[in-house]
Amino acid sequence: MSRVRPPAVAGLFYPEDPAALAVAVERALAVAVPDEEPVPKALIVPHAGYVYSGPTAGVAYARLRRLRGTVERVVLCGPAHRAWVDGMAVAGADAFATPLGIVPVDEPLRARVLALPGVVRDDRAHAGEHSLEVQLPFLQTTLGRFSLLPLAVGDARPDDVAAVLDAVWGGPETLVVVSSDLSHYLDYETARHRDRRTADAVVARDPAAIDDDDACGARPVRGLLVAARRRGLAVRLLDLRSSGDTAGDRDPVVGYGAFAVSPPAPG
Fold first, then answer.
1. Crossing angle of helices 50-61 and 18-28, rounded to 10°
2. Would you state the pLDDT for residue 102?
3. Is 3 exposed, middle or buried (CB count within 10 Å of its CB: 0-12, 13-18, 19+)?
4. Mean pLDDT of 143-151
5. 229-263: b or e for each residue (b if 16 or more CB lie within 10 Å)?
6. Residue 101: is its pLDDT beyond 80?
7. How confident is the model at residue 267, as a pLDDT?
8. Is the pLDDT assigned to residue 10 strictly greater than 70?
């Protein structure tokens, strides 16, 4: 009998009603994307409630419209907020559910990463974790059908995360998504400067310049940057703002950034 991980934050971080959720996602995706942009191999996207970080996430996910029918599997990494993880944890569930439907877990990829050091199967890390769940409606809307490798990242070194990503990197059929907000609970101006510094480090593919306090998903972000640098991939900043720009007060705020990892643009 298959086991489905049910939504944990529907009705809290995003609408529980499927029709309302579809409207919210489409509204966030209403972003113009230049035809000449390189196709992304990976994205870094925020994971707060949609009223706060949805506009920033939508700027990144709008880039996936043209990958529908090409991307067959998504490697989704985010920080483990609710359970201690020594390394990285995959879910034991056979599928993840959202109000928009069921996403199957990719069993071959799961078996591949479980053979690596530092990767465990731990449902505690996934049961209430929002950093991965909030990405799924965006992926379902833009990509349609795909399989999922959900990875909750805890105490993991950049090289360890990069090694896991290397094992499942694949080709154009595989997309990597890293979920991370930026600074937390600073005043608006302090956060703006701090997040710009972090964004510059991400674009420079400089994991050593990103501290744990700069981004709650700093560990998966650093691992992705190591993998991107090894492959000569470029990182582009797509959007940078905070909850003070969307639906929140300006003291304090949470920062959000959207980035695309892709081959360098010609010329």
1. 60
2. 98
3. exposed
4. 98
5. eeeebebbebbbbbbbbbebeeebbbbbbbbbbbe
6. yes
7. 57
8. yes
Q: What is the tens place of the pLDDT at every residue in 127-139? A: 999 999 999 999 9
Spatial separation of the C-alpha atoms in residues 150 and 167, rounded to whole Å: 14
Query: How many beta carbons lie within 10 A of that of residue 67, not counting itself?
Result: 16
Helices assigned H by DSSP within the chain: 18-28, 50-61, 107-114, 124-127, 130-133, 136-143, 158-168, 188-203, 218-230
Q: Which CATH class is domain 4-31+38-262?
A: alpha beta
Q: Please give the Cα distance from 78 to 130 (Å, whole number).
A: 9
CA-to-CA dists, residue 34 to 39, 68, 71, 78, 111, angstroms: 11, 17, 20, 28, 38
What letters, b where the CB count within 10 A reaches 16 and e where it falls short, cover 215-225?
bbbbbbbbbbb
Contact 258, 238 (CB under 8 A): yes
Judge if pTM exceeds 0.70.
yes
pLDDT of 231-245, one tens digit each?
999 999 999 999 999
User: Does 163 have pLDDT greater than 80?
Assistant: yes
**What's the pLDDT at 264?**
86
Token pair in block for residue 151: 């990875």
Whether omega before 79 lies within 30 degrees of 0, making that bond cis, reads no
Give the span between the Cα atoms of 165 and 161, in whole angstroms.
6
Tokens for 241, please give them. Answer: 């703002």
The domain segmentation of the chain, as residue ranges, is 4-31+38-262
Pair of tokens at residue 149: 């490798």
Given a cut of 60, is residue 156 above it in pLDDT?
Answer: yes
d(CA 65, CA 21): 18
